[in-house]
């Protein structure tokens, strides 16, 4: 096996161990979680992809505390964002957000919980949508129950402007391309943010993801 690849067997084994680690930590079985983490490292040590390294970080964060946990969560989110496995990326945001909420860092938690909620809605993982929604409610944030059709509430022009903003164009650049003023672009983006329940351009990458498989390994 080349270091840049995961075989289907490795993918399945690593996924199963990551599920075991999370379940063990959530039920207080810390010794089991540590054993599973050791096994996880052995299973994936020859895989040097963003997915493998991100999943190792996510697993390590679950059995860590303090700064060590935060470093691992941050790296997991960063690395899994580079892959096409959006469910694993979403779960990294969710786990980090849950950890931040337990640390009483509600504002930081909301950022990651909103990202997780938006991804789960887009993917259609309803059980995780509700889990993220519950966590957001616990931080004091109001969350409207929604589904993937929320994006269809955008007008054609709002959708076009939102996609250009998601792709990194500034308001003047979008205005020049669409022959409208930057103020008109800003007005449409405010409507987009309200409809998609987001607060920044950065969140457009979650609310309006590009095309591509959610399940194909990186």
What does it look like?
This protein starts with 7 loop residues before the first helix and ends in an 11-residue tail after the last helix. The protein is built from eleven helices and no strands. It has two domains: 8-138, Tetratricopeptide repeat domain (Serine Threonine Protein Phosphatase 5, Tetratricopeptide repeat, Alpha Horseshoe); 151-196, Winged helix-like DNA-binding domain superfamily/Winged helix DNA-binding domain (Arc Repressor Mutant, subunit A), CATH 1.10.10.10. It has helices at residues 8-26, 30-44, 50-62, 66-81, 86-102, 106-123, 126-138, 156-166, 171-178, 182-196, 204-207. Helix 9 (171-178) packs across helix 10. The protein has 218 residues and is mainly alpha-helical.
Secondary structure tally, helices: 11
CATH class group of the largest domain: Mainly Alpha
| Structural class label | mainly alpha
Helical residue percent?
55-70%
The largest sheet is: none
C-alpha termini separation: 15 Å
Instruction: Assign the CATH topology of the largest domain.
Output: Serine Threonine Protein Phosphatase 5, Tetratricopeptide repeat
The tally of strands reads 0
Rounded mean pLDDT is 84
Q: How many separate structural domains?
A: 2
Shape: elongated
Question: Which residues form runs of ≥5 with pLDDT under 50?
Answer: 211-218
Strand content: under 5%
What is the name of the CATH architecture of the largest domain? Alpha Horseshoe
Helix-strand pattern, N to C?
HHHHHHHHHHH
CATH superfamily of the largest domain: Tetratricopeptide repeat domain
Rg calc: 19 Å
């Amino acid at each position: 096996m080349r270091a840049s690849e995961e075989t289907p067997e490795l993918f399945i084994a690593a996924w199963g161990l990551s599920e075991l680690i999370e379940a063990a930590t959530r039920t207080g079985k810390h010794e089991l979680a540590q054993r599973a983490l050791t096994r996880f490292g052995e299973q994936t040590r020859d895989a040097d992809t963003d997915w493998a390294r991100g999943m190792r970080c996510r697993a390590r964060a679950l059995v860590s505390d303090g700064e060590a946990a935060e470093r691992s969560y941050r790296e997991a989110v960063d690395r899994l964002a580079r892959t096409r496995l959006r469910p694993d990326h979403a779960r990294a945001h969710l786990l980090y957000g849950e950890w931040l909420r337990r640390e009483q860092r509600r504002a930081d938690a909301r950022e990651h919980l909103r990202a997780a909620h938006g991804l789960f809605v887009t993917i259609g993982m309803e059980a995780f949508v509700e889990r993220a929604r519950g966590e957001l409610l616990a931080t004091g944030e109001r969350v409207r129950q929604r589904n993937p059709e929320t994006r269809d509430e955008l007008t054609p022009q709002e959708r076009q402007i939102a996609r250009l903003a998601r792709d990194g164009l500034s308001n003047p650049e979008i205005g020049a391309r669409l022959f409208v003023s930057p103020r008109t672009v800003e007005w449409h983006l405010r409507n987009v943010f309200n409809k998609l329940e987001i607060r920044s351009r950065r969140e457009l990458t979650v609310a309006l993801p590009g095309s591509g498989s959610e399940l194909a390994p990186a």
